[in-house]
Amino acid sequence: MISREQKISGYKALAEVGVDVTKEMAAEGLTAPEPPGKAAARARLDVLIHDRDFFRRLMAGDADAATEFDSLNRQLAE
Questions:
Q1: Distances from the Cα of 56 to the Cαs of 20, 45, 46, 59, in angstroms?
Q2: Domain limits of the chain?
Q3: CB 63: neighbour CB atoms within 10 A?
Q4: Which residue has the higher pLDDT, 47 or 33?
Q5: How far apart are alpha carbons 28 and 60 in whole angstroms?
Q6: From the CA atom positions of the chain, what is the Rg in Å?
Q7: What is the pTM of this model?
């Protein structure tokens, strides 16, 4: 019998080559763990979303704020 970890590993390998496995995983009650980089990016974005100073700088076109915001969103999109 295939273990849960083996199934997730197999699905992850398929996803890495472009196969959408979300429906199949959901049907089996599985969710792939978020990579550490994504978890860190999500946590940082959660902090920035509530930071009024950061939001003001972002809306004012501050290059550093825009770069950080874009970088974090790209990490989440991967």
A1: 38, 15, 16, 5
A2: 1-33, 34-78
A3: 8
A4: 47
A5: 46
A6: 17
A7: 0.56
